[in-house]
Write a structure and sequence with these properties.
Length: 94
């Protein structure tokens, strides 16, 4: 078990699986340089990057699932609501 600290939040994680990926040589070199400069392992940096990506992008899945439920329930924006939003953004709504 390893202890990982990020900012002031510390959590314990067990590393119970391995992921092998293919990356371009220049990406590998950049990762090695960053690991050397920061004193972190390449695995630590890769895990940190994957977690940040997942946190940043997962909201889209939730939003899409909610929109599908609304559409299935027949809950659509009215024409007036759509036109109001388009006008807000400077798009000719007519």
């Amino acid at each position: 078990m390893r202890l990982y600290c990020k900012v002031l939040l510390c959590t314990q994680r067990t590393m119970d699986t391995t992921l092998t990926i293919r990356i371009p040589e220049d990406t590998k070199q950049s990762l090695e340089q960053l690991a050397e400069a920061t004193g972190r392992s390449k695995s630590f940096l890769a895990l940190d990057a994957i977690q940040a990506y997942l946190e940043r992008e997962s909201w889209q899945i939730v939003a899409i699932q909610e929109a599908i439920k609304e559409a299935d329930a027949g809950d659509f924006a009215t024409l007036a609501e759509v036109q109001r939003v388009l006008r807000k953004w400077g798009v000719d709504a007519d």
